[in-house]
Every structure is written in C-alpha cells, then in structure tokens.
Amino acid sequence: MATTKRNTNKHNRIITLGEVTNEHICDTIEQIYEINNEDKNKEADKREPIKLILNSPGGDVYDGIGLIDVIEQSETPIHIYIPKPNRYSCFNCKQTI
C-alpha cells in the first residue's frame, strides 16, 4: 500500500504521492497548505517550489480533481514529477498526463 510522505528537510520540500485515495489526497493537501502557510510572508518569486512526486497506479478520480484544485490555488509553486516506471494499460484506455 502506497503512502504520502513529506521529506522533513525544509529545503527540499518533497511530497511523494502513491495511490490516489481520499486518505492520501487529504494528507497531501494538508502538506501543501502547511507549506503555503510557512511561506505566507514571502514574496511569490521568493518561494521555493514544492516538488510533488506522483508515483501512482491510479485511484479515485474525484479525489484527484480535489488535488488539482489545491495545486492550482497554491501560491507556492508546485513542480510535479512523474517517474518513468514500467506502466501498461488496456487497448481502449486513455491516459491523462
């Protein structure tokens, strides 16, 4: 089972997101809000970006949409990284990246 974790080193600001579930998305959103709160007195161009590593086999669409809303509203920039794992899908599947 995948989990959400934050690197405790404030200079790295790394959040790793595994499977997209309500619990994991809520943890990730909470961490994004915490970092934005830490940065509230910094100018926008002085904020160090959050690195979100999205390593997920999939999950709940509605929870994912909630995360997208938070990413778009974040005043601290968020850089999303998607590792290149050995992924596969069915013939008629569509993938959104």
Number of domains: 1
Shape label: globular
What is the mean predicted local confidence, pLDDT?
A: 80
| CATH architecture field | Alpha-Beta Complex
Largest β sheet strand count, sense and barrel closure: 4 strands, mixed
Strand order of the largest sheet: 1-2-3-4
**Overall CATH class:** Alpha Beta
- DSSP helix fraction: 25-40%
Describe the protein.
By secondary structure, this protein is an alpha/beta fold. The chain has one domain: 2-enoyl-CoA Hydratase, Chain A, domain 1. The protein is built from 2 helices and 4 strands, in the order ββαβαβ. It has helices at 22-38, 61-73; strands spanning 5-6, 14-17, 50-54, 78-81. The protein has a 4-stranded mixed beta sheet, covered by helices on one side. Helix 2 links the parallel strand 3 and strand 4 (78-81). Helix 1 (22-38) runs parallel beside helix 2.
